[in-house]
């Protein structure tokens, strides 16, 4: 199991919290919210792209969720890069001073 460590970061709670914050932010745009809405609608939709036995029919649901997650992660990375360049947030130029001054 050690050989897989460090090759790719696993999604953690912090990343999920940042994704939720991204979705709540009014400046985030509609693409992120639309991706979540479409993925949720696909999950509850009675028709599947791969109908049949449950393990096979779950593959398309998992694929849609994974694609939505990858899209949200890309949106989050773009936002992080914009924050670094634009100086938003505490302790950065243009953001509130963490010392309170």
Q: How would you sum up this structure in a few lines?
A:
It comes from Thermaerobacter subterraneus DSM 13965. This is DUF1232 domain-containing protein. With about 100 residues, the chain is mostly helical.
The main sheet comes to: none
In the residues, how many domains can be counted? 1
- Overall, the morphology is elongated
The helix count comes to 3
Can you write the helix and strand succession as a string?
HHH
CA-based gyration radius: 18 Å
Low-confidence spans: 89-101
C-alpha end-to-end distance: 48 Å
Average predicted confidence as pLDDT: 75
Q: What percent strand?
A: under 5%
Task: Indicate the structural class.
Answer: mainly alpha
Q: Tell me the number of strands.
A: 0
Helix content: 55-70%
Region (Disordered): 79-101
Biased composition (Gly residues): 88-101
Protein name: DUF1232 domain-containing protein
Organism: Thermaerobacter subterraneus DSM 13965
Topology:
Layout: H1 13-24, H2 30-44, H3 54-86
Characterization of this structure:
This is DUF1232 domain-containing protein. It comes from Thermaerobacter subterraneus DSM 13965. It is a single chain. The protein has 101 residues and is an all-alpha fold. The protein has one domain. Helix 2 runs antiparallel to helix 3. The longest helix is centred in the C-terminal third of the chain and has 33 residues. The radius of gyration is 18 Å and the shape is elongated. The N and C termini lie far apart (48 Å). 5% of the residues are buried.
């Amino acid at each position: 199991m050690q050989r897989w460590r460090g090759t790719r970061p696993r999604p953690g709670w912090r990343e999920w919290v940042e994704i939720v914050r991204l979705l709540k932010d009014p400046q985030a745009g509609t693409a992120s919210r639309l991706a979540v809405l479409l993925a949720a609608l696909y999950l509850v939709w009675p028709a599947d792209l791969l109908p049949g036995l449950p393990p096979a029919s779950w593959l398309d649901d998992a694929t849609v969720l994974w694609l939505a997650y990858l899209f949200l992660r890309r949106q989050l990375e773009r936002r992080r890069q914009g924050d670094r360049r634009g100086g938003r947030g505490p302790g950065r130029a243009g953001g509130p001073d963490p010392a309170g001054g």
